[in-house]
Amino acid sequence: MATIEFPHSAAAGRKESRAVHCLLALLHGSAAAVLWLPRFWVQRRQLAVLASMSTRELLDIGLNTCDIANALAQRNDQDPTVYLANVVRERRLRRQA
User: Fold this and answer.
1) CA angle at 35 for the pair 47 and 33, rounded to the nearest 5°
2) Separation between Cα atoms, residue 72 and residue 74, nearest integer Å
3) Whether 68 contacts 58, CB under 8 Å
4) Where does the record place the YjiS-like domain (predicted)?
């Protein structure tokens, strides 16, 4: 069986891989920028549902009204529901200890 070998230098391969890496980083950044706004609105809608709950309902799931206010104070690129889930998990662990 015959194989065909093409002349290929190591420096050319590094340049190509660097160019591909830069292109993929640019594509990832562009996709993140485009998809940020819809994701932001979904997160805010979920937070609005939690904010509309009564104090008793919030206590049933391990939250209080201050937690909702703290979640609203998070940066816009952070998911407030992740923050609230961490608060609930920490409270459950403290209660179990």
Assistant:
1) 115
2) 5
3) yes
4) 36-68
Contact (Cβ atoms closer than 8 angstroms) between residue 39 and residue 77: no
Give pLDDT, residue 52.
94
Residue 65 Cα distances to 28, 32, 57, 88, angstroms: 36, 31, 10, 13
pLDDT for position 83: 93
pTM of the model: 0.62
Q: Which residue has the tokens 């609105």?
A: 41
Residue carrying the six token digits 């201050």:
66
50-73: pLDDT as tens digits:
999 999 999 999 999 999 999 999
